């Protein structure tokens, strides 16, 4: 598959804000995100159904897909940033205009539930997408400086970069070594839920990076067991653990394993480099990860070196 790298963002470019999953908790967050982006010199447009409500979804599947496809087909739109995650993105995968992506590749940003969209886009089109801050989550109020710097450097410059944790938050090598491969992954629950579908990319020889939130250790164990039984883990070139936020036992008074014990056990079953504690996931201070890009992982140094530019 030919790799699709979107054009880099420039001041004056039009950025679209949409809700492919759940809606923001208030329209005020959208307004503040718009002011932030426009203060940096960008123009903005918002999907018609960004604040629609259908239970936990931002409107019907058709409404959310319509917003996404409209922005994909609009040649004036240079980037699409999800307002938030939540739930609902996997429901859109059969409705996406993948031909529009191939004709007009653009920067697409999100994480958490947006993992489904990003993996599907790479599978169907080869598009590099960015697992990074969302408009109504991180961008609307006091974005962390580390997050901000890493995010905009990736989106605005074709330079190859080395991604690593800030000095005050060192990562930990669980298995030392170097490995090269395409970096893929995202939210662990979404990665696992897509296996066996036509929207899941090939993970053979990949560097898999995963994170999660609010999953009890036994559920994390079950998902990694699924990856192992599906043959995914043994086919990897490397494995990276991001942050597993609030992944604690539902009842700490009963016998249990910690999520750290679960992750360490699965790392011990592999013969490839494994890095733990990457500053990535459902946290305020985070790296932006360019999914689909060829990288080199150095587990001992805690670095992910980009071997090709993420944008053109």
What does this structure look like?
This protein is an alpha/beta fold and 312 residues long. The protein contains eight helices and 14 strands. 50% of the residues are buried.
Class by alpha and beta content = alpha/beta
- Number of beta strands: 14
Low-confidence stretches: none
- H/I helix tally: 8
* Rg over CA atoms: 18 Å
Which sequence of strands runs across the widest sheet? 6-14-13-8-9-10-11-7
Query: Based on CA inertia axes, which overall geometry fits?
Result: globular
- Give the overall average pLDDT: 98
Distance between the termini: 18 Å
Strand content: 15-25%
- Give the biggest beta sheet: 8 strands, mixed
List keywords for this structure.
single chain, 312 residues, alpha/beta, eight-stranded mixed β-sheet, six-stranded mixed β-sheet, 8 helices, 14 strands
Q: Layout of SSEs?
A:
Elements: E1 14-18, H1 27-39, E2 43-46, H2 61-73, E3 77-82, H3 98-103, E4 107-110, H4 115-125, E5 129-131, H5 145-156, E6 162-164, E7 172-175, E8 178-187, H6 188-194, E9 207-213, H7 217-229, E10 238-245, H8 259-268, E11 274-276, E12 289-291, E13 294-298, E14 303-306
Parallel strand pairs: 1-2, 1-3, 3-4, 4-5, 8-9, 9-10, 10-11
Antiparallel strand pairs: 5-12, 6-14, 7-11, 8-13, 13-14
Helix pairs in contact: 7-8
